[in-house]
Amino acid sequence: MKSKPFIITALILLTAADYTYSQSAGLIATHFEALTKHDVKAIAAGYTDSANVYSPNWEGAKTGHAGIIEVYTRYFASTPDLAYKVNHIIYTGEYVVAEYTVSGTLSKPVANTPAYMKDKKYTLEYCAVFTIKGNKIIKETDYFNQVAFLRQVGFFDQH
């Protein structure tokens, strides 16, 4: 019977896909738990040493644990009440797409931030695309509406 090898191959592929899904789901759940707790070391631990993270917040990529620690340390310092709410997650093999909401108050802006932004509340809808290999994030690209952020912190109210 020719169907036995096909069925065995299909079962192996389904088992592998289930294993990959389980690893990715666990990694992403841990990632968002660490974000919620503002645990910078736990966040960085989910990435490889050479991971690249891209965001409209900065030019170029932040690379590896040092880049990730720098970015999230700054975020949590400037917005101590920063909160994350996951809305949807799609798992597709080595790629994970997460839609989530970020909200907080820019109560301790970093140097060179205009004074009018201090104490402004903001809520942003994010989308992140993660690439995962070996149960670690090797790449993350974040998307959000930067104009919405600027509107909420008073940028367009300045004359």
Task: Describe the protein's architecture and organization.
With 159 residues, the chain is an alpha+beta fold. The chain has one domain (3-157): Nuclear Transport Factor 2, Chain: A. It has 4 helices and 6 strands. It has helices at 3-37, 40-45, 64-78, 146-152, and strands at residues 47-54, 62-63, 83-92, 95-106, 120-133, 136-144. A 6-stranded mixed β-sheet has the order 2-1-6-5-4-3. β3 and β4 form a beta hairpin.
Short description:
The chain is of the alpha+beta class.
Specify the CATH class.
Alpha Beta
Write the element-wise H/E pattern from the N-terminal end onward: HHEEHEEEEH
Sheet-strand content, in percent, reads 25-35%
Low-confidence residue ranges: 10-21
Task: Please name the CATH architecture.
Answer: Roll
Separation of termini? 79 Å
* Count of the domains: 1
- Number of distinct beta strands: 6
Shape: elongated
> Helical percent range?
25-40%
Keywords:
6-stranded mixed beta sheet; 159 residues; Nuclear Transport Factor 2, Chain: A; alpha+beta; elongated
Topology diagram in text:
Layout lengths: L2 H35 L2 H6 L1 E8 L7 E2 H15 L4 E10 L2 E12 L13 E14 L2 E9 L1 H7 L7
Parallel strand pairs: 1-6
Antiparallel strand pairs: 1-2, 3-4, 4-5, 5-6
